């Protein structure tokens, strides 16, 4: 529940960032039209303040979510070993360590989650990993687009480049919000799968009781 709630806060922070990005793009577009006056300068200052506030909000929610999400992932990975001791391609430590391996973190965490998902399905049922694949694909795309948008924003010179960077950042934040929504789906559904597996199987002692 905590992981799902914090992921929901990530969605809210991303939507706030989308609003800030759109405000930045609008100001940049107005600057292209010329005629800078006191009102436009005041709006530009407000847009910068809003953008910085959105960045801080995203950072705080991301750090808090990472901590809780990794705790959740470790526990469901531990449970999955009880359900299927030999159904995992990676050792338990990779549930956390895989996120911190450069380059490898683009696919290692997904592999862990897919194995947990498969091991948690009720015996005899058809396993569909579509939610996991959709979440991971969207998250990777948002990550790559976000990095490109940050570089473009930092290198922007002039209102036209700033407007383009703000629009790309808007696209990135929207993708991240969608990925976070899918992450909530994965967390909730996988937790329910494990509870159903516990109730259907022999008595075990799951990590989350």
Automatic annotation (TrEMBL):
Positions of the DUF4328 domain: 43-191
Identify the Pfam families for this entry: DUF4328
Q: Which residues cross the membrane?
A: 49-72, 132-149, 170-190
InterPro entries for the chain: DUF4328 (IPR025565)
Q: Which UniProt keywords apply?
A: Membrane, Transmembrane, Transmembrane helix
Record's protein name: DUF4328 domain-containing protein
Q: Which organism is it from?
A: Streptomyces graminearus
């Amino acid at each position: 529940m905590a992981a799902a709630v914090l992921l929901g806060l990530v969605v809210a922070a991303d939507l706030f960032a989308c609003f800030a990005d759109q405000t930045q793009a609008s100001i940049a577009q107005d600057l292209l039209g010329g005629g800078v006056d006191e009102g436009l300068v005041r709006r530009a200052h407000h847009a910068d303040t809003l953008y910085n506030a959105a960045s801080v909000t995203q950072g705080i929610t991301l750090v808090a979510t990472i901590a809780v999400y990794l705790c959740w992932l470790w526990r469901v990975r531990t449970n999955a070993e009880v359900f299927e001791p030999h159904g995992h391609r990676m050792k338990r430590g990779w549930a956390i360590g895989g996120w911190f391996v450069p380059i490898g973190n683009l696919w290692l965490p997904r592999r862990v989650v897919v194995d947990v998902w498969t091991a948690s399905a009720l015996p005899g049922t058809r396993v569909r990993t579509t939610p996991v694949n959709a979440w991971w694909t969207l998250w990777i795309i948002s990550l790559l687009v976000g990095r490109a948008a940050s570089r473009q924003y930092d290198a922007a010179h002039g209102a036209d480049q700033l407007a383009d960077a703000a629009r790309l950042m808007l696209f990135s934040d929207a993708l991240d919000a969608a990925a976070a929504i899918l992450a909530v789906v994965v967390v909730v559904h996988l937790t329910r799968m494990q509870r159903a597996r516990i109730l259907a199987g022999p008595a075990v002692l799951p990590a989350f009781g």
